[in-house]
Design a protein that fits this description.
The longest helix has 9 residues. By secondary structure, this protein is mainly beta. Helices cover 9% and strands 16% of the residues.
């Protein structure tokens, strides 16, 4: 798979920056949708050791659900320790790497993994029942 850019037609994985922007929804909340974790996320202490039905927790300010907890979400970017050097205007991360970024936390991980600022990485070939994805579409 190759990166066709932010203006590509059709659907794609969001960049890490796009994912965080959508999760934050113009707020400074610790989790996507608020600061009360049990209201917005499934994580190791409340999920019963399994993925939960989508949309059963509160939405964030932009009506997006499940951006904190339930399953880690793949994003396009290759992992680097700090993405702050990428700039703040539509960064897309490094051109290559060995692991891709996942965001949002999951039912298998502790509460802190569901923080909007938290990030993890997996090899692109990794598969698990606590990892999923959310698609983005460039406009127009």
């Amino acid at each position: 798979v190759t990166w066709e850019g932010l203006g590509c037609p059709g659907y794609r994985l969001p960049t890490e920056a796009e994912w965080e922007y959508a999760a934050r929804a113009g707020t400074a909340s610790e989790y996507a949708g608020g600061d009360r974790l049990d209201e917005v996320a499934w994580y190791d202490q409340n999920a019963g050791k399994q993925t939960q039905p989508v949309g059963t927790k509160a939405a964030n300010a932009w009506r997006l659900k499940d951006m904190s907890g339930n399953v880690w979400e793949w994003v396009w970017d290759w992992y680097v320790e700090s993405y702050k050097s990428a700039g703040s205007q539509d960064p897309t991360g490094p051109a290559s790497g060995s692991r891709r970024v996942v965001r949002g936390g999951s039912w298998l991980y502790v509460a802190g993994s569901a923080r909007v600022a938290n990030r993890l990485r997996f090899a692109p070939s990794y598969r698990g029942d606590f990892v999923g994805f959310r698609l983005a579409r460039s406009y127009p």
